[in-house]
TrEMBL record:
Residues 1-23 form the signal peptide. Pfam families: DUF4197 (PF13852). The keyword Signal applies. It comes from the Bacteria. InterPro entries: DUF4197. The lineage of its organism: Bacteria, Pseudomonadati, Bacteroidota, Sphingobacteriia, Sphingobacteriales. Keywords: Signal. This is DUF4197 domain-containing protein. It comes from Pedobacter vanadiisoli. The keyword Signal applies.
Amino acid sequence: MRKINILSASLTIMVFASLNVSAQIKLSDIFKKVTEKQGTATAATGTPSTFEIGQGIKEALQIGVSAGADRLSVKDGFLGNLAVKILMPPEAQKVEKTLRGIGLNKLCDNVIVSLNRAAEDAATEAKPIFISAIKQMTLTDATNILLGNKDAATEYFKRVTTAQLIQKFSPIVSTSLNKVNATKYYSDLTTQYNRLPLVKPVNTNLTEYVTQKAIDGLFIEVAKEELKIRDNLSSRSSTLLQKVFGYADKKKS
């Protein structure tokens, strides 16, 4: 009987010790998690260094321009997006209205579709140009963008990439316009219109027009991405972005 009591007591001590160790491990895990969360919260707050601002802005802009360019460079990227869809050139809108009025809707539709397809082709070349501009950005540029207006990054891109985009896009647009028959469709459209009595002949440089509209569309999409990361906390996907843009929020409040 005494042996049984001793054995029972020993088992009780062992179980208690095991439970105590388990409790200590659990408490240690909880403490570790709390510490990690506190560390993350601390890292995401405070005043970022100039270097962190530069890295944060570059990270945010790379995410933004990649998303914007990718959306536009696929089929219907322009055509299916009302904010950037390319319509008839201004001088041809009267032409379109007149020709639709006499039943030539298909001809007008062919022109519009082909103009947008050309822009979608050109948009595939935009991302490397934007990424290069981001890499060349100075720390002063980054700080000015962070603390500037909500379109400060978009304005920066307009300033430093427009000439390169025009140079890169023009030959692509020109080739694409021929590939998708835009030049032929537009020629057919203007020929039909110019045959009508008492109309002023219409001449448009399609390459220049589509190139500019494609670039305008890119900047519209970049501006959307810029606004998203400035205003939407969930878009700040890293500790660095949270710290940098959180600091900007405080500075502007």
